[in-house]
Amino acid sequence: MSVILKEMALTIFVHPENIPSSEAAAATLLLSHVAWNRSIGIPIPDKFYNAVLSDMESSNPNFWKELKYHDKSIIISKLITYKQSHYPDDCRIIDTCGTVKGKVRVEWHNGLS
User: Fold this and answer.
1) Is the sign of the CA dihedral 107, 28, 47, 98 positive or negative?
2) What is the C-alpha to C-alpha distance for residues 83 and 41, in angstroms, rounded to an integer?
3) Distance CA 45, CA 36 (A)
4) Residue 102 φ/ψ region, left for φ over 0, alpha for ψ in the -120 to 50 degree band, beta for the rest
5) Residue range(s) defining the domain that contains residue 69
6) How wide is the angle at C-alpha 35 spanned by C-alphas 73 and 44, nearest 5°?
7) Per-residue pLDDT tens over the stretch 70-94
8) What pTM did the predictor assign?
9) Residue 32: how many other CB atoms lie within 10 Å
10) Separation between Cα atoms, residue 37 and residue 97, nearest integer Å
11) CA gap 35, 106 in Å, rounded
12) Domain count within the chain
């Protein structure tokens, strides 16, 4: 699952081959997490991630320049489309997603089949 979320996150970067800022990396993983769960019908309210994104913007307001889109709704929509086209039958529910010692770590549990 970690490989899949990283794959999804990389689709949002302007230059996926470059090492992103920690804020850009965290934002794309967070939005991938939200998109994944929404794509399988798990409602995640905007307030779940807005405060975290605001903290990232305070730390590095330029991280949005690393992303193809500067609107989180568009990013989530693109990521939902990606998930649905590449992993339509995968109904695992993501509990947490982030990085630990530079590696993507995802905790999940089985959802509907």
Assistant:
1) positive
2) 13
3) 13
4) left
5) 2-109
6) 85
7) 999 999 999 999 999 999 999 999 9
8) 0.93
9) 29
10) 12
11) 14
12) 1
